[in-house]
Amino acid sequence: MTKYVIRGGKPLYGTVEISGAKNAAVAILPAALLVDGVCRIENIPQISDVTLILNILQELGADVRTVNRTTVDIDCSHIRNARVPDTLARKIRASYYLIGALLGRFGSAEVPPPGGCDFGGRPIDLHIKGFVAMGAEVDVKGGLICAKAKDGRMAGTTVYMDMSSVGATMNIMLAAVLATGTTVIENAAKEPHIVDLANFLNSMGASIMGAGTDVIKIKGVDHLSGGSYSIIPDQIEAGTYMAAVTATGGEVLIKNVIPKHLECITAKLVEMGAEVEEQDDAVLVRRDRPLERTNIKTLPYPGFPTDMQPQVAACLCLAQGTSVLTEGVWDNRYRYVDEFRRMGAQIQVDGKIAVIEGVAQLTGAAVEACDLRAGAALVIAGLAAQGSTEISQVRHIERGYEDIVRKLSGIGADIRVVVTPDETKAVQAG
Ligand code: EPU
Known about the structure:
The chain has helices at 22-31, 48-60, 86-89, 97-106, 125-133, 166-176, 192-203, 235-248, 259-271, 309-316, 337-342, 372-384, 395-398, 404-409, 421-428; strands at residues 2-7, 12-17, 36-42, 63-68, 71-75, 108-111, 136-141, 144-149, 158-160, 182-186, 207-209, 215-219, 225-230, 250-255, 275-278, 282-287, 295-297, 322-326, 346-350, 353-357, 366-368, 388-392, 414-419. The chain is α+β, with helices and mostly antiparallel strands. Uridine-diphosphate-2(N-acetylglucosaminyl) butyric acid (EPU) is lined by residues 23, 26, 93-94, 117, 121-127, 163, 165-168, 189, 306-307, 329-330, 372-373, 400.
């Protein structure tokens, strides 16, 4: 088993560079299925979710060539197969983007149900409702989601989203770019990665207007052709390092970010006692005052992101006074709370609300990452705690954070990877 061992209680100082956005990459890579020709995609984060998507594309028959550490060339022109193999797709949430992309390209798709972090129910009814409105028939057969456009090609229409869903917005966009007619998505999600996917598709010849607002219009085109595109920086990775400095104190320059995307996070960290100085493509985060309590409600963008909720909870555990967190997106995103309690945190959860009584210090403990952001939050808690914290199940963290141990070590954290003999044996045994 691989663990992270952290000796906490040290402020962070230095410079850290942010990678490309996971939640943009996991949609843009499948979008290459729609393109006739070679797509060069730059600023790809090196994380296991991206590796999985690239492997799935290769299994489908895509030609994937690594240009350098963060750039790949993908050519999906020769793919004739709209059926996604089972084993890999089940491991990742974003495999649902293959449904929209394959429907757009072939008018049919057979994709296993998606996996990913467990936050209670994670339905995809809004995705399916959109595909059906665009003329597809969707069934579950033999454990696969089978979708087929009745006339062989998706048909533009107006889709009203009951809830602003990031995944459904992007999936419908993927199904619509090569459809006949115009698709209008109303009550669309507005996250930065939605704009990034639209920019990628437009740069390959699509006609998408309004991404980043709640009405997106997609005029179907006959053909997308190859080109090159660079993925935006990861808002949540940047926010996680901002929260880490807020929790530990110190001063860190966080480079390769879009400060505008971080404003919703910055506002709350400033209330908690951090100072944040925006630069062109960097933010300087400093905290040298005591941490203060605050209340936070997670909401779709431009509200405070749910994917930052566990990380700010780690900061609030050490703030003076009582803070109230309200989870406004997922039913159950507090599974990490028991692990925080092992470190001395005082948190009560009632449904979507967590009440956090700040304590003077957290103490290191053996804890387990139950999902990606919960794992990142435990890293932050470990960095701020007194003594040694051992985090297991770090594979969840590595799904979404490139080189987190190296990046944190570079800003002065005492964190190392420990691989226990069991796993070494398993690896040697193949
Ligand atoms: N929802 C439905 N029906 C649907 C789709 C969503 O009821 O068909 C509900 C969900 O249950 C949830 C809300 O709508 O209550 C929002 O879900 P959304 O569809 O926006 O989430 P998602 O697309 O499945 C993405 C990110 C998540 C992030 C959410 C919200 C990816 C691969 N995942 O999930 O990221 O929490 O948007 O911003 O982009 C993470 O990176 O750690 C992560 C979990």
